[in-house]
Amino acid sequence: MLKSCVRCTSAPAASSSPNASMFKRHNLMNSVVKAVASIGLFCSFWCFQASGTELKPSTALAFQEYVNRAEAQMQTEVDDPNHFLRIDAIPEDQKRAVISRLRNGEVVVQPLRTNGHETPTQVPGGLVHHWLAIAFVPGVTAGQVLQLSQDYSRYGELYRPDVQYAKILSQDGEHFSVDYRFYRHTIVSVVYNAEFEVNYFTPESSKNYSQARSIRIAEVENPGKAGERELPVGNDHGYMWRANFYSRCLERDGGVYIEVEFVALTRTVPAVFAWLVNPYMRSIPRDYLTRYMDEMRSALSQP
Questions:
Q1: What value, to the nearest 5°, has the Cα angle with vertex 66 and ends 51 and 191?
Q2: Which partner from 9, 24, 213, 292 sits 20 to 30 angstroms from 175, CA to CA?
Q3: What would you measure as the largest C-alpha separation in the chain, in angstroms?
Q4: If we measure between CA atoms, which residue out of 287, 257, 294 comes closest to residue 99?
Q5: How far apart are CA 296 and CA 299, in angstroms?
Q6: For the structural domain made of 55-301, what CATH number should be given?
């Protein structure tokens, strides 16, 4: 009887074993694919780290042409009192949906399209990354946002670890020259010394905007160690050759809307790795901008 019961209970399991085996094989294949993707991603970044690359004049020129077009569009927008913010130019139903998300405390970060192509945009010898981040901070003014933005001595405290420090080299009215040390950790850790020219504009007390353009970015080798040195500018690993930030701030709805555009230039990705690396590269500015906006909002919300 016991043997009969064993045979009876084991028979259904045997009949379902093909499906069970199929699911096991499916899960195994998923694990293998993920493992291969992770190894491939690591290897591709290791290859980038092991081999340097040079910023070509044609690449720098193509980036500057992109920036000129983008800045012309930005200037048209900030000069229009009805479309000071980018979200003011989108269809009304989409605008209401975005504002609802912002008013509920979400930071909206998205890539911007250029010529119908999503970022990163290919230029000769490089990739242009163009992103927009938007946040709403209730109960504060545009003047408070401007004051915080110009308080560079606090950047190392507010935006660490991405910003190690920032210090003003010179100031002439609303024009600043600022020295930064940036840190980025993904699969590899990278440190940069960077100098920016920053201009602030306040057309009205209720709104302001700024343009921060990098004029020098140097990758640092062996940071914090006895052998620390800067790699030659434009002749490094190419993780970040250029980086510009453009911000807008407008009082509305009992608080301020803050928009930040990020435009950066990096080296190209070999085609064999593009399908694997490009999604990861897109995640880097998204994560950075989300942290930056969250930290700014937190600082503004403190009494």
A1: 35
A2: 292
A3: 97
A4: 257
A5: 5
A6: 3.30.530.20
For the stretch 5-46, pLDDT in tens is 333 333 344 444 444 454 444 454 454 444 444 444 445 454
Q: What tokens were used for 136?
A: 């709403």
Residue 279 preceded by cis peptide, ω within 30: no
What would the 3-class secondary structure string for the chain be? CHHHHHHHHHHHHHHHHHHHHHHHHHHHHHHHHHHHHHHHHHHHHHHHHHCCEECCHHHHHHHHHHHHHHHHHHHHHHCCCCCCCHHHHCCHHHHHHHHHHHHCCCCEEEECCECCECCCEEECCEEEEEEEEEEEEECCCHHHHHHHHCCHHHHHHHCCCCEEEEEEEEEECCEEEEEEEEEEECCCEEEEEEEEEEEEEEEECCEEEEEEEEEEEEEEECCCCCCCEECCCCEECCCCCEEEEEEEEEEECCEEEEEEEEEEEECCCCHHHHHHHHHHHHHHHHHHHHHHHHHHHHHHHCC
> What is residue 302's predicted lDDT score, i.e. its pLDDT?
86
In this prediction, residue 271 carries a pLDDT of: 63
Which backbone phi and psi does 286 adopt, to 5 degrees? -60, -45
Report the predicted TM-score, pTM, of the whole model to 2 decimal places. 0.81
Reading the block at residue 167, the tokens are: 């210090």
**Per-residue pLDDT reduced to its tens digit, 257-273:** 999 999 999 988 766 56
pLDDT computed for residue 46 by the predictor: 47
Note the pLDDT of residue 239: 86
What is the residue extent of each domain of the chain? 1-51, 55-301
Q: What are the tens digits of pLDDT across the range 48-66?
A: 454 568 899 999 999 999 9
pLDDT value for 116: 60
